[in-house]
DNA sequence: CCGTCTTTGTGCACACGTTCACAAAGACAT
DNA sequence: ATGTCTTTGTGAACGTGTGCACAAAGACGG
C-alpha cells in the first residue's frame, strides 16, 4: 500500500527540538502582550512566569535560536518578538482553507486568532451543495468539487479539516494530492499521509478522557475502599490471562488498582 | 504571589506513564471500531496500524495495564475495551460544564463525541444575560451568576472553558473554587491553578504556528538561495547582540533563514 | 503428547527533554 | 578603571519515552 507515515518522526528540524518549537508560540504570545504594554526588556524569570514554564527551560529554548539576550539585563522585547516570529515563519502570509463548515468549522472561521498572526482564511469548503455561496464569517462557502482549484489558485499549503470522521481521510487525500503539506485535523480519526506531510490533531474527546483518567485517580486516592462495582465486566478474558499487574517490580505496598476487577 | 502550578508536573500517576495515558483513548477508539464490526481478537500489529503507532510501543503500553493478551493469538477486543475504559475512568458518568457559549462553546455543546464516552454536558454557562434560557444543543444556557450552584448541584469536577481570553482566568478561579479539579481550556491564555488541579489546553493558534514552522522549513530546503528580505527587521538589538546563530556548529553557509517565500 | 509457529511481554540501548547549578558576560556605580 | 551585582548561556546529571530484538508463552496440527 505504501501509504506512508502517520506520525511525524520528530525530525528535529534543523537543530531546533520539537518541544522547543511547540513552546515558541507561547513565548510569542507573552512577548506580544508585553510589547503592547510598551515594556522594553524582560528577564527570563519574568517571561517564564508569564508563559507558565521554568526559566531555565526558556533560556535553553532561546539558546537554540541564537544569543538574543543581554546578561544582567534580559531580553529586548521587540527584538525577540521579531526573531521568534521569523523563526516560526510568521513574517509571511499563510493562506489556509477550512474544510467542513459545520458547527466547528464555522466557529473556526469566526475565530479571530487566525488573522492576528499571519494566517488568512483563503476559503471555506463544504460538501453540502445547499451551503455553497452562503457567507460564513464574511466568506462565501465553496463546494468540495472545487477543492483542487481553490488550493492551487491560492497557493494554499495549510489545510484545516473539520469534517465528520468518516470524510476526513478522503478530504485529507485530496488536500495532499492538491499540494497541501500541513494539516490540522479536528476530526476524530487517525489520518494517513505520505512522507513529508505534517499532521497535527486536536481531539476534544481524547483530552477529556485524559482528564478523566487523572480525575479518577484523584478520587481513588482520597476515598479508598469503596468496593462498589462499576459496570458489568465483559464476557471473560480469552483464556487464562487474569493474573498479574505489577509482576513484583516497583509499586511498593500492594499491586492492585483502587478497586478493580469485581468478578 | 503563590499562585500555584501552571503545568502538570507529569506526575507519572501510579506507574502509568503520561505518554501511555495519552495514547489509551486512541487505542480505545480503534478497538471500539473493531468491536462494532464484531472482530473478536486483534494482534498488536493490526491494532497499532489502526491507531497509527508502533506495535512495540502499543505492547509496552498495554503491559502497564497488565497482561491482557494471549501469545500466538492477540488481544480479545471486548475485554480490552473494558479494561481500557475502566483504566480511563469511563465506566462512570462525568458531568461536564461548558463556560462561554459563543461560536466555539456552541460547537462543543453540539459535538456528539461527548455523550459517547461517559461524558455528559450537565450545563452551559455564559456571562451574557440575553443568552440565559436560550437552548443550545437542547440545553438551556444559564448565567454565570449561578456557576457555583450549578457545579455543586451536579457534582461537576470537569470544566471546559470556551470564553474569550480575558475572562478565562477569572472563570477558571471560580470553577476551581467551586470544586472543579480538571479543566479543558480553549482560551488562548496560560491558566494559573493551584496544585492538584489539572489543566489541558487546546489552542488553534499554537497548532497553526507549529505547522507554519515546519512548512517554512520545507519551503526553505527545497528552494535555497533566494536572498530576499522578508519584513523590516525591528529597530536594533539592545546592544551588541547581533551576532551568532549557530556558533560555528552545523548550518553550513550563512546564518539567516532558509529564504522565505517571495510573494 | 510433542513439535512447530505465531505473537506477546520485556530487557536493553539509545534519543529526547528537563532541571540544576555555575562560570562568564556585561551593566552600572564609584 | 575597577569592582560589584544581575542575569544569561550552557555543561552535566537525570528522568522519560521509544524502538529493537528476542526469549518464552501458548495455540494448534498431527
Automatic annotation (TrEMBL), chains A, B:
<dbReference type="GO" id="GO:0003700">
    <property type="term" value="F:DNA-binding transcription factor activity"/>
</dbReference>
<comment type="function">
    <text>Modulates transcription in response to changes in cellular NADH/NAD(+) redox state.</text>
</comment>
<feature type="binding site">
    <location>
        <begin position="100"/>
        <end position="105"/>
    </location>
    <ligand>
        <name>NAD(+)</name>
    </ligand>
</feature>
<dbReference type="GO" id="GO:0003677">
    <property type="term" value="F:DNA binding"/>
</dbReference>
<keyword id="KW-0520">NAD</keyword>
<dbReference type="InterPro" id="IPR058236">
    <property type="entry name" value="Rex_actinobacterial-type"/>
</dbReference>
<keyword id="KW-0805">Transcription regulation</keyword>
<comment type="similarity">
    <text>Belongs to the transcriptional regulatory Rex family.</text>
</comment>
<dbReference type="GO" id="GO:0005737">
    <property type="term" value="C:cytoplasm"/>
</dbReference>
<keyword id="KW-0804">Transcription</keyword>
<keyword id="KW-0238">DNA-binding</keyword>
<feature type="compositionally biased region" description="Low complexity">
    <location>
        <begin position="229"/>
        <end position="241"/>
    </location>
</feature>
<feature type="region of interest" description="Disordered">
    <location>
        <begin position="218"/>
        <end position="263"/>
    </location>
</feature>
<dbReference type="GO" id="GO:0045892">
    <property type="term" value="P:negative regulation of DNA-templated transcription"/>
</dbReference>
<dbReference type="InterPro" id="IPR036388">
    <property type="entry name" value="WH-like_DNA-bd_sf"/>
</dbReference>
<dbReference type="Pfam" id="PF02629">
    <property type="entry name" value="CoA_binding"/>
</dbReference>
<comment type="subunit">
    <text>Homodimer.</text>
</comment>
<protein>
    <recommendedName>
        <fullName>Redox-sensing transcriptional repressor Rex</fullName>
    </recommendedName>
</protein>
<dbReference type="InterPro" id="IPR036390">
    <property type="entry name" value="WH_DNA-bd_sf"/>
</dbReference>
<feature type="domain" description="CoA-binding">
    <location>
        <begin position="89"/>
        <end position="190"/>
    </location>
</feature>
<dbReference type="InterPro" id="IPR009718">
    <property type="entry name" value="Rex_DNA-bd_C_dom"/>
</dbReference>
<dbReference type="InterPro" id="IPR022876">
    <property type="entry name" value="Tscrpt_rep_Rex"/>
</dbReference>
<dbReference type="GO" id="GO:0051775">
    <property type="term" value="P:response to redox state"/>
</dbReference>
<dbReference type="Pfam" id="PF06971">
    <property type="entry name" value="Put_DNA-bind_N"/>
</dbReference>
<keyword id="KW-0963">Cytoplasm</keyword>
<keyword id="KW-0678">Repressor</keyword>
<dbReference type="InterPro" id="IPR003781">
    <property type="entry name" value="CoA-bd"/>
</dbReference>
<feature type="DNA-binding region" description="H-T-H motif">
    <location>
        <begin position="26"/>
        <end position="65"/>
    </location>
</feature>
<dbReference type="InterPro" id="IPR036291">
    <property type="entry name" value="NAD(P)-bd_dom_sf"/>
</dbReference>
